Amino acid sequence: MAIGVLDKVNPTNILIRRKSLKRNHTMNDDLSKKAVNAALCGNWQDAIIFNKKILDNSPGDTDALNRLARAYVETGDINKAKKTAKKVTSIDPFNKIAIKSLEKWRSLKNGSKTIQKTLQAQTYLEEPGKTKIVNLINLGKEDTISVLDCGDELNLDAHGHNVNLSTLDGNYVGRLPDDLSARLRKLIKLGNTYIAFVKNSDKNSVKVFLKEVERADKVKDIPSFSSEKIDYVSFTPPELVHGEKPQITDDEE
């Protein structure tokens, strides 16, 4: 009986099927890159088109569905966004992106749009002395942390001895370690400006990407961050305790 089944197998058909699967996979990879680039540039209508083309070939592609849901919400079509995210959870009940998105969009109504600024593809390019990836400390409420997405912009607030970070609608997320806070507070006071984006997050940690966007003339030769790959630790510099104005040095970090 097994031999009879094998006799009916057409090697040509198998080869054609394999080539078709390979072609679809290659095409989906290309469309995925286009979809991601469209999203990074804020071309949400193009992102919708590219992700839909992927789903025509692979209806169960949860990555494409999550990207499509994000594109819908950015164009104000909240109903479709939620419906698409729910489709992801029906395929993968533990999909963290879809679960987080549904929680984040729960209070949004059709026609409203998110207030996060559009990321450009070059946003996460690391530049020695101008960028830094840092773990926040003293995290805020779990409800706030749980809905953070990669790419969400955060506000920096140099307050007191600390630099706090919050969502654009004012919810506290966490703060920079004390030594880095001390350095950036001085540089901000002298005229430097910075932006911050969520790199990744979970309920126990938030990692942010800090970027210098403008350097003041007074400190034009002073880098914002050490070029060395180091982990910042929390401590309070003695000069802050005694109220003396510290000098900015390269080894302060």
Structure description:
The chain folds into 2 domains: 2-104, Alpha Horseshoe (Serine Threonine Protein Phosphatase 5, Tetratricopeptide repeat); 131-241, 2-Layer Sandwich (Alpha-Beta Plaits), CATH 3.30.70.2330. It is an alpha+beta fold. It has 9 helices and 6 strands. Helix 2 (11-40) packs antiparallel against helix 3 (44-57), helix 3 (44-57) packs antiparallel against helix 4 and helix 4 runs antiparallel to helix 5 (78-91). It has a 6-stranded antiparallel beta sheet. The chain is 43% helix and 17% strand. Residues 230-246 and 249-253 have low confidence and may be disordered. The radius of gyration is 24 Å and the shape is elongated. The N and C termini lie far apart (75 Å).
Task: Provide tags for this entry.
single chain; 253 residues; 2 domains; Alpha-Beta Plaits; disordered C terminus; alpha+beta; 9 helices; 6-stranded antiparallel sheet; Serine Threonine Protein Phosphatase 5, Tetratricopeptide repeat
What's the architecture of the largest domain in CATH terms? Answer: 2-Layer Sandwich
Number of domains: 2
Sum up the overall morphology in one term: elongated
Structural class: alpha+beta
Supply Rg.
Answer: 24 Å
Poorly predicted runs of 5 or more residues: 230-246, 249-253
Report the β-strand fraction as a percent range. Answer: 15-25%
Mean pLDDT value: 78
CATH domain class of the largest domain? Alpha Beta
The first-to-last residue Cα distance is 75 Å
Could you name the CATH topology of the largest domain?
Alpha-Beta Plaits
**H/E topology pattern:** HHHHHHEHEEEHEEH
